[in-house]
């Protein structure tokens, strides 16, 4: 399923902020160039962000990066029992809404890091979501320079929130993790360019100009996982992207993502996602398609 590209209306301001009260919250599989900060209340259903999908309900606050496909589908039965219209507070803004270099200032580094992490989608816990209900409502109805101050204040607060979950995998947003050093940048670039084939540990350690044992320690220290664990995430994440696009048979997708045989691909895919590739694909298939 190819995401629809949404053109965010160019309103009279540097960013948009809206309040909506749809009877049911239905957002099709789509993406856009802007960041999206969205709070969803009084709604239950399924959330899809990149290759992540899960149930949602009560209070849902997310920060979604540019060009990251996402979709919400209401649970009709649960929402009809709830008897309350959904309430959605949403802001769209570009990384440069305050100019090209604003977030390069030392004081802005925490927010810059937040925006970098949001390229894979961030989900904040319900307590954080409810805490920002009033600030987001004020943002929607603020005018003039107060709008900018409020948005920056919200982003600054979210940059300090400890309780948040990264949604899309490394592989779905290839190379999205912010490299901390040139060495790590070179390693991630090498993985992005070669994950479809065999990657020997000796080769990638050579890219980092390190001996294999030193590289293994270095990689785990910086990424919090072994290199082969990360490589598998990249391959499975890319497979999820291809399955969602619905253009190739499963066997070809497995081969295109660096798996030498279908049974190995199915086994590795289930270990990471909890389901077989065909079952995963059906999660993103529109009814009647």
From TrEMBL:
Domain HTH araC/xylS-type: residue ranges: 185-283
Taxonomic superkingdom: Bacteria
Stored InterPro entries: Homeodomain-like_sf, HTH_AraC, RmlC_Cupin_sf
TM ranges: none
UniProtKB keywords: DNA-binding, Transcription, Transcription regulation
MF term (GO), any: DNA-binding transcription factor activity
Keyword match Transcription regulation: yes
UniProt-listed PROSITE patterns: HTH_ARAC_FAMILY_2 (PS01124)
Designated name of the protein: HTH araC/xylS-type domain-containing protein
Gene3D superfamilies: Homeodomain-like
Lineage: Bacteria, Pseudomonadati, Bacteroidota, Sphingobacteriia, Sphingobacteriales
């Amino acid at each position: 399923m190819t995401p629809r590209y949404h053109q965010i209306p160019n309103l009279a301001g540097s960013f948009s902020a809206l309040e909506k009260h749809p009877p049911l919250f239905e957002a099709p599989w789509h993406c856009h160039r802007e960041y999206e900060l969205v709070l969803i209340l009084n709604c239950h259903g399924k959330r899809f962000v990149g290759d992540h999908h899960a149930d949602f309900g009560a209070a849902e606050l997310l920060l979604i990066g540019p060009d990251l496909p996402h979709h919400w589908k209401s649970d009709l039965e649960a929402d009809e029992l709830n008897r309350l219209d959904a309430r959605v507070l949403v802001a769209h803004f570009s990384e440069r809404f305050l100019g090209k270099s604003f977030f390069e200032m030392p004081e802005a580094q925490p927010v810059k890091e937040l925006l970098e992490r949001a390229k894979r989608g961030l989900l904040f816990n319900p307590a954080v979501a409810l805490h920002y209900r009033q600030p987001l409502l004020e943002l929607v109805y603020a005018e003039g320079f107060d709008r900018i101050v409020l948005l920056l204040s919200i982003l600054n607060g979210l940059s300090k929130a400890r309780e948040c979950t990264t949604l899309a995998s490394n592989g779905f947003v290839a190379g999205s993790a912010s490299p901390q050093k040139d060495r790590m940048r070179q390693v991630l670039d090498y993985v992005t360019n070669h994950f479809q084939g065999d990657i020997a540990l000796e080769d990638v350690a050579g890219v980092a100009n390190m001996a294999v044992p030193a590289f293994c320690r270095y990689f785990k220290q910086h990424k919090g996982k072994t290199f082969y664990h990360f490589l598998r995430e990249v391959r499975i994440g890319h497979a999820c992207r291809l399955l969602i696009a619905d253009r190739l048979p499963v066997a070809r997708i497995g081969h295109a993502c660096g798996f030498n045989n279908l049974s190995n691909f199915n086994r590795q895919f289930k270990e990471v996602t909890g389901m077989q590739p065909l079952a995963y694909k059906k999660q993103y298939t529109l009814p009647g398609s």
